[in-house]
Amino acid sequence: MAQIRHYINGNDFGEPRNWKDLEITVDWLMKKESGTINVSDLEFVGKANEYLQKRILDGMTGGVGIFEGEPYRIEIGEESNPVFVFDGYLDFTSSSVLIGGEEISVGLKKKHGDDWLNDVADGFSFAYLRDQNIITDGDYIKIPYVINYIPDGMQLIVLSMSIYMMTKELIENIQALSDTIADITDASTPVIGVSVGVGAGVVTAWDWGNFIMTVLKAIARLIYIVAIVVAIKELIEQLFEQLLPKKRYHLGMTYRKMMERGCQYLGLNFSSSIVELDWVYIPRKDKKGGESGEIGFPRDSEPISIFGDLIRSLKEQFNSDYRIKNGTFYFERKDNFEVVSNYVVPSFFNDQDRLLDRVKFNTDEIVSNYNIYWALDVQDQNTLDVFDGRVFQAVTTPINKINNEFVVIKNLAEISIPFSLGRQKTSLTAVEELAKVLGKFVDNLTGIFGSGTNFASQVENRIGSLLLSSHFLSVGKVVKMSGNKLANNQRQVLDAKVLWEKFHFINSFAEYNGKHNQFWRFEGQRVPMSKEEFNELTENNFCVDDQGNEVQIEKIIYSPSKTTAVIDYRVKKKYTNNLKVEIL
Fold first, then answer.
1. Which residues pair with 104 in a beta bridge?
2. pLDDT-based confidence at 203, cuts 50/70/90?
3. DSSP 10
C-alpha cells in the first residue's frame, strides 16, 4: 500500500476519516489539471476537526475567516522523497458542514488548478490591475495613426483652388511691390535744373513728398504681403487639420504584457514562445489620441476586460493550451506539450468479460468547415473596405464518394477573434502628394520670414501609421509594431490564414503538413500502476503502447490505496486516407 500523508497548513493531524475512498483524477480531455481529488468533501474528526472549526470562525476575532482557504497538501511515497504531491486548499465556502463540535466536512480544491484559475482569473479586471498600480503608464505602447477617410474628389478641388488663389494673390502683390520699388527709385532721383536771377546756375532738387508717399506705399504693400503669408499659413493649418489631420497616437498594450501583468497579480511567472512581443491590442476608443483620460488597457465593456477572458481568447486564437508548473504559467500551441514519457501502456483488454478491446474512433471531433476570422469595426471604414487577411476557411471533404447524400463529414468550427485588424499606411495618395507640394510651397515661403513651417514633412510622416476613418474605435484592434511604426506587411503577418498555417492545421483530420488528427480511442481500461508511474503521467500524459504507437492519456482515475488505475487513452493512428482539405 502506498504511503500517504495529509498536511493541513503544514500540520499532520492524521488522515481524514474517508481517506480510503480517495482517488486522484487527472482529466486532460475535459480540463487541464495535474491532479484532482475526486472526493468532493473531506471528513475530519479529532484534532483536525478542532483546528478547522476554530479556523473557520477566526474571522470574528481578527483572523482571516471563512473566505480564505486553508493550505492542504497530500504526499504519496517516502517522506524524504515523495513521488506525488497534491498542493491544494480547503475551501470553506464550498459545501462545508459542521456536525456539532465533533466533525467537519470541507470541500477540497487544487491550488493553481482549473477551478482555481477560472474562479480567480475571472475575479479581477484589467481596470482593477490599473487601480492597484500593477498596470502603469510604462506598460502602454503608443500606436501612431492618421485619419484617411474624406472624399478624395472634394479634397482635390479644395486644395487646387487654394493653391491657385494663394499663388495668384502672391504673384500680383509681389509684382505690385516690384512696381512700387521702381517708383521709389524714380522718386529718389533728383531733378537737375537752372536757377534764375542774379548768379543763375545748376540746381538739384528732390520731390520729397512723392518720395515719402511712395515709400509708405511700399511699406504698406510689404505689410500686406506678410499678412497674406500669415493668412496662408493659418489657412493651410486649417486645411491640413480638416483634410489631412496630423498624426496622433492611441495607447495600447501588447498581448504579452497583459498576460504578464495578470500572472503577476496571481503570483505567477509567464512563459510563452507564441505570444508575440510586438502584437499590440488597442482597446475601444471614445477619445482622440493624446486626449486627457485615454486608457491603454481593455475596458470593462470589452470581450477581454477580465484576465480569464484574455486567456480563453488567446487559447482559441492560437489553438493553444497552458500548464502551471513551479509557479510559472506556460502557454504554448497544444501539441507543444506532447513530449513522450517513459510509461508504456500495458496490453490488457478493456472488455475483461469478453477478453476483447472495445475501440472507438474520434469521428465526433472532425470538422468539415473550419473558419477563422477577425471582427469588423463599423466605426472604421478600413475594416469594411479592405478584407485582406480577415477571413480564412478550410473545408474537409472526401476524395472519393459514391453517394453525396450519405456523406457524414460534419461540424463547424468558428474561431471568432473579437478584435479587428489594423491597416498600415504605406504610400501617399494623390491628395497627399498635392498637399505635399502645397506644404513645401508654404514651408519655403514662411522660411523667408524666419519662421518656417514643416507642412511637407507632416505629410511624409503619415507613412507607417495606422489608418483610421475616425478617431474612435467600437471594436478593439490588433496591430504588429516595428519600433515606433507599424510593421510592414501588416495584414499578411496577422492574416487569418497564417493563424491556420502556424497554429490550427494540427486539427485537420486529413494529413496536412505531415500532421493529422485521427485517433483510435480506448476507454475504461484498468491497469496496475505504481505511484512512480502515476507521478510520471501527471507530469506528461504522452507515452507509447507495447507496439510503439503514440498514445495520449485522456483520463486517469488513480487509487493510491490499491495502486491501480482506470485509464482512457487514444492512439494516434489513421483509419482513413479518403480525406482532403480545400483552402478557400
1. 44, 98
2. very low
3. T
Neighbours of 153 (CB within 10 A): 8
What pLDDT does residue 174 have? 57
| DSSP symbols for 144-211 | EEEE--S-HHHHHHHHHHHHHHHHHHHHHHHHHHHHHHHHHHHHTSPEEEE--STT--EEEE--HHHH
Give the DSSP letter string of 460-518. Answer: HTTTTSEEESSS-BSS-EEEEEETTEEPSSHHHHH-HHHHIIIIIGGG-SS-BTTB---
Question: pLDDT tens across 41-87, in order?
Answer: 788 999 999 999 999 989 889 888 888 889 999 888 788 878 778 88
- Give, as one character, the DSSP assignment of residue 297: S
The C-alpha cell at 394 is: 478550410
| Alpha carbons 159 and 166: distance in angstroms, whole number | 11
CA distances in angstroms from 480 to 255, 464, 484, 491, 495, listed in the order given = 11, 11, 11, 9, 11
- C-alpha cell of residue 268: 505567477
Phi, psi of 32 (to 5 degrees): -110, 85
3-state secondary structure of 92: coil
What mean pLDDT value characterizes the chain? 81
Instruction: Tell whether the model's pLDDT for residue 169 goes beyond 80.
Output: no
β-bridge partners, 422: none
> Beta partners for 556?
26, 567
Sorted by where each begins, the domain ranges of the chain are: 4-121, 344-362+518-583
> What is the pTM assigned to this prediction?
0.73
Contact 282, 156 (CB under 8 A): no
Q: Cβ(320)–Cβ(332) under 8 Å?
A: yes
Return the residue matching grid coordinates 480563453.
312
Q: What is the rounded CA–CA span in Å between residue 35 and residue 84? A: 10
Query: What's the confidence (pLDDT) of residue 130?
Result: 96
Q: Are 489 and 534 a contacting pair, CB within 8 Å?
A: no
DSSP 429: -
| Spatial CA neighbour of 49 closest among 78, 23, 13, 92 | 13
